[in-house]
Specification:
This protein has about 675 residues and is of the alpha+beta class. It is built from 23 helices and 24 strands. Helix 1 (about 5-25) packs antiparallel against helix 2 and helix 12 (about 435-445) crosses helix 13. Bound molecules: 2-(butylsulfanyl)adenosine. 2-(butylsulfanyl)adenosine binds near residues 83, 175 and 281.
Length: about 675
């Protein structure tokens, strides 16, 4: 076919596809079948693949993930809107502070900014040249929705800032919420104040938003140009001066001891406040320290939400059920006589593990006190043994997996020299039904492939119906069959299909995380991705059984390596990865890959002064370098601190590797 003819054919097909896509997503009235739509798309993809020059401004791949017109425009946050880690006990708080000391490698005291944690909906306001330009919802933390007009209806949100010292561009973030007194007036329409705020913000017509009296309290910033202050408390003062509302109960404290006292006082008066509050937020006050501490993948290292204690209630254990989790852990759950705790009916309570049951001598029929804290499953605080009947029997924990009948083990931990408290099914993966279903739920979860419309319940259902047995089956669903199921309409099927299509674009880090390999969470998945760089390199390591290479990664130890080896040595797991590689578009995302340490590798030996390994490592990563944990010819720099390991220094000298003192290293980083 002449190139002209081919181009005409291509454009015709592309336009037809665009038309049907619109009918599909925006008009909700498809005119061709799913199969025909797929066929057309495949034909276009084929042309694009064989004739890359043909692709103009629009390629068929741009079509994926189109959104119904009902939704708002999307906005990628310049600085992610992360969440906060939660603390419930004093121990959690001291651990939080200890981690900070460790990261900064000193025990210097610092102040905390302490702020009530209003239970509302967070929003981000971008001001450019003192004008409110964008108002955006948090969304999934990375991409939010543009809801500027709705936010503008909130009287607490200034549209224009008069002060000269206001940064030329800044994102002010805070909480949108409804006061208790205002909620009472509309309580028939919404389940709780938080729902009222979020429902109102998502109205298509700002006039509808305006009808519900919302408030806004500012508490942090995202992207900004020009530095504007040195501490969080100073920032909160500035906010007030610029015309934003801040919480009048914000405080500064010099240590956790005083904070804990304040938490107790505040908790007792929480019900008298005119807004819903679910805890206090503690932030390292010094912004310079905040910058040094940075973030883990989900939350800042410099802040924690200290939740208020939960309500408790007494109830009775009806039975004990054993749930099998993604990693084979057998978790006992008490089915209890339903009881109302703080407005929520509770029928299950976690018993944690076999050891916990024997330590507390928990038995079927026991009267127990349970506690509910946040969204986590309630747990047993104590057993009222005085109410126990004479014929009650000690609970005997099953030793075979209740799901697949495999034997179970309590692993021996070489480091602690103790047996694990958790008993696990020995089946390695998809051979155990419950493990398989839980693995699938993990695969589609928010942090992993994030497939909207394919929640946990749908996974259970599709498993029962034999639609999905392995992760790759998700991408081969027969939508005509789904359409016929009860509760599924045309629109929900199209939406599901769109989010599955969208999820095909995935980073290698997320894919490794999504596989649900034991001991490989998001942070380790990142370390592995940084090392292997591409899926083909990962396959190479697996094929050549060079799992030892993972040990070179600073942060990956024997436990993780053994787990990776175990996982990838199983043919059925490998097949999953091979199949997924065929289906998915796997990208390796690099953060600022043009930093000044690009492609340079570092290793540390000896104690550093005034900076922890973790911080040094994060500085290297911020500048696009990487750290390794053994000396080889691929190493660029060995940084030596106090008392370095002689053999490492000698080996580096032999290999002509540059040796840096801590001073040289800091100089290199400037
Ligand atoms: S700071 C990087 N400060 O809590 C995190 N958050 O779980 C920055 N929240 O999404 C958040 N009061 O909706 C911060 N004084 C406060 C807050 C607060 C409420 C909410 C916010 C955030 C969630 C984090």
């Amino acid at each position: 076919m002449s190139s002209n003819k081919l181009k005409k054919k291509y454009i015709l097909k592309l336009n037809t596809l665009k038309k049907h896509n619109k009918l599909y997503f925006e008009k909700n009235s498809p005119k061709i079948s799913d199969a025909d739509f797929d066929k057309l798309k495949k034909e276009i993809l084929e042309i694009e693949k064989n004739n890359p020059n043909i692709i103009g401004k629009f390629s068929v791949s741009n079509l994926v993930g189109s959104k119904p017109s009902k939704s708002f425009d999307k906005y990628t946050h310049k600085v992610q809107m992360l969440s906060l880690s939660n603390g419930f006990s004093e121990e959690d708080l001291f651990n939080f502070e200890k981690k900070i000391f460790n990261f900064l490698n000193n025990k210097k005291k610092f102040y905390y900014s302490v702020e009530p944690k209003i239970d509302g909906i967070s929003a981000s306001l971008t001001y450019i040249n003192n004008q409110l330009v964008y108002g955006v919802s948090r969304g999934d933390g990375k991409v939010g929705e543009v809801i500027t007009e709705n936010l503008k209806t909130i009287k607490d949100i200034p549209l224009k800032i008069k002060d000269r010292d206001f940064p030329s561009e800044i994102e002010i973030r805070g909480e949108v919420f409804i006061k208790k007194a205002n909620f009472i007036k509309i309580k028939d329409k919404f389940a709780n104040p938080r729902n009222a705020a979020s429902g109102s913000l998502r109205q298509k017509d700002p006039n509808e938003t305006k009808k519900i009296p919302l408030n806004f309290i500012a508490y942090t910033f995202g992207y900004f140009k020009n530095n504007f202050c040195k501490s969080q408390s100073e920032f909160l003062d500035q906010l007030k001066k610029w015309g934003f509302k801040t919480n009048k109960d914000n405080k500064i404290f010099p240590n956790l001891k005083e904070i804990i006292k304040f938490h107790q006082q505040f908790e007792s008066k929480r019900f008298n406040l005119d807004y819903d509050v679910d805890g206090l937020v503690y932030k390292v006050n010094d912004l310079n320290l905040q910058e040094r501490l940075g973030f883990t993948s989900n939350s800042p290292r410099w802040a924690i939400a200290h939740k208020f204690s939960a309500d408790t209630a007494n109830t009775k254990i009806l039975t004990i059920e054993i749930q099998v989790g993604r990693t084979g852990a057998l978790t006992p759950v008490a089915k209890v006589e339903p009881v109302n705790i703080g407005g929520v009916i509770v029928a299950n309570a976690s018993l944690h593990n076999e050891d916990e049951i024997s330590r507390k001598d928990i038995r079927v029929g026991d009267v127990i006190k349970i506690e509910r804290a946040g969204d986590v499953i309630p747990h047993v605080i104590e057993v009222d043994k005085s109410k126990r009947s004479k014929d009650s029997k000690i609970y005997s924990f099953p030793i075979i997996c209740p799901s697949c009948g495999s034997s179970t083990v309590k692993e021996f931990n070489k480091t602690t020299k103790k047996y694990d408290a958790v008993r696990r099914c020995t089946n390695d993966g998809f051979g155990c039904e419950r493990i398989a279903v839980e693995k699938l739920k993990h695969f589609i979860s928010k942090e992993a492939l994030n497939i909207d419309g394919l929640g946990k319940k749908v996974i259970e259902k599709f498993w029962e119906l034999n639609f999905i047995k392995k992760p790759q089956d998700i991408f081969k669903l027969d939508y005509n069959k789904i359409k016929k199921l009860e509760g599924w309409g045309e629109l929900s099927v199209y939406n599901l299909r769109a989010s599955i299509e969208k999820s095909k674009n995935v980073t290698l880090q997320k894919l490794i995380y999504a596989l649900g390999i034991r001991h490989i969470g998001m942070e380790n998945a990142k370390l592995i991705t940084d090392k292997v760089k591409s899926i083909s390199n990962l396959f190479k390591i697996i094929k050549e059984k060079k799992f030892n290479e993972f040990l070179n990664i600073d942060g990956i130890g024997e436990t993780q390596m053994n787990s990776l080896e175990k996982y990838f040595s199983l043919q059925s797991n490998l097949k999953i990865l091979y199949d997924l590689n065929e289906i998915l578009h796997i990208e390796v995302k690099k953060i600022d890959s043009n930093g000044k340490l690009k492609e340079k590798s570092f290793m540390f030996t000896g104690k550093l002064d005034g900076i922890s390994r973790a911080e040094a490592k994060s500085l290297i990563e911020k500048n696009s370098g990487n750290t390794v944990s053994s000396v080889s010819k691929n190493l660029d720099y060995l940084v030596i601190g106090e008392n370095p390991t002689k053999s490492k220094v000698d080996k580096a000298k032999n290999l002509n590797i540059k040796i840096l003192t801590q001073k040289d290293f800091i100089k290199l980083l400037n």
